[in-house]
Amino acid sequence: MKKYYISTLVMIVLFTSSCVQPTRNINITLKLHLKGMKDVQRVGVKGNDKPLSWDQGLPMNPIIKDSLYTVTYTTKTGYNFTEIKFTVDDKAELKGQPNRRLDFPNTNRVVYEATFDNPAAKAN
Amino acid sequence: MITLIKKLTKPLLLPHWYQDLLLAIPRLVCGYLLTADFGSAKFGLPWSPKDNNLHLFEVAFWFPHDVAAYGGIFKMFPVFFAWMGAFSEAVGGIFLLAGYQTRLFSTLILLTMLVAMFMQQWQNGLWNMLPAMGFAWVALYTSVIGSGRFGIDHLVTK
């Protein structure tokens, strides 16, 4: 009887172990345009999947100060999308509006170009 | 064994049918919400969101990581507990909605919600504990009385 319980437990553990959604690496490049902003100190991006989080923004690097910023990172996910919001000087964009959504159903590389606080964006 | 299963399945009936109906409402709402929303977002069912890319009975990739963060036994068997928790919500919701094997699945849901309340949301404050608490209260009484008159349990045991 004891053997039966142990083997049942082992089978349950093995069965459930094999039922985790597989993940893949997605390489994401973000480009953010700022319009009419001066003396910007920090630009970042927050989001769902690591290395992003909704607590701490991932810093973006200036290509043209106060105008164009970029960051490239790799995220490991099982989903076909992720959600993000940009921040400037720790202030998040699109207040009260939905997050930006990046879809990647058939690709492992996404280039997403956007303007701060403007939901219209160009994804490649 | 059959007697035990029958005992576990047979619901307690209240004196009047409308009392059973009243108690069936939270059970139906919670069952629906668990399987259509909370559970199917992290456990693969035919109605899981397509972009979540979940195959049938697959648990979302992030859930075992969250479960492992609870520490202790959850850290030792994160996949098992994540799978069981997601299964309890997604599949348990269907059974709760149908009122079939209500006590068994209510107990699974209750245990899952207790973990959600005390291991996941405790440090986030009372407000964040409310959804799990709501499901837990319903699962608590359905684990005692079963489905009542308005469930498959009643039909198969009367």
From TrEMBL, chain A:
Q: Which PROSITE patterns match?
A: PROKAR_LIPOPROTEIN
Q: Which domain of life is it from?
A: Bacteria
Query: Which stretch is the leader sequence?
Result: 1-22
Query: Which keywords does this Swiss-Prot/TrEMBL entry list?
Result: Signal
| Annotated protein name in UniProt | Uncharacterized protein
Species of the source: Mucilaginibacter achroorhodeus
From TrEMBL, chain B:
Q: Which InterPro entries match?
A: DoxX (IPR032808), DoxX-like_oxidoreductase (IPR051907)
Q: Which residues form the signal peptide?
A: none
- Cell compartment(s), UniProt: Cell membrane
Q: Which residues cross the membrane?
A: 76-97, 104-122, 134-152
UniProtKB keywords: Cell membrane, Membrane, Transmembrane, Transmembrane helix
Query: Membrane topology for this entry?
Result: Multi-pass membrane protein
- Primary location group: membrane
* Cellular component annotations (GO), alphabetically ordered: plasma membrane
Name the domain of life: Bacteria
Keyword Membrane in the entry? The reply is yes
Provide the family line: Belongs to the DoxX family.
Quote the PANTHER family the UniProt record gives: INNER MEMBRANE PROTEIN YPHA-RELATED (PTHR33452:SF1), OXIDOREDUCTASE CATD-RELATED (PTHR33452)
Task: Give the protein name, as stated in the record.
Answer: DoxX family protein
Q: Native species of this protein? A: Mucilaginibacter achroorhodeus
Q: Which taxonomic lineage is given here?
A: Bacteria, Pseudomonadati, Bacteroidota, Sphingobacteriia, Sphingobacteriales
